[in-house]
Amino acid sequence: MTRRTSSRRNSRRLRANATPVWAGALGTEPEWSGLGEPPVVPVVHMNGTPRGRLKEENDAAYRAVLNALREVEQASPNGRDYYPLGDVYAAKAVREHIGRVDRLRAVLAELAYIGEWIAG
Fold it and tell me: What pTM does this model have?
């Protein structure tokens, strides 16, 4: 039996308790303007993913969500498509649409925060 399991357990404990360290100038940390707690950010270290790759992946995700947001905004409900069901359904469709747009904006805000953090 090896002690590898023990060191793995300690490694997990350290990672769970690790606090990300801001790489930028003191006092320039990105400000979280979203709802609730800010998202968990990656820790750039020698055994992890390089900063450049993290930035590329996060930027690609940001652009994809931004494009999705634009498309969803364009797909807004039109009252003509709901009036046979009654006015209640058109209003409900608009509320649901607004909820979809708001959720995408929340994801966009998280990705922007993470991107600022990675860029340091």
Answer: 0.74
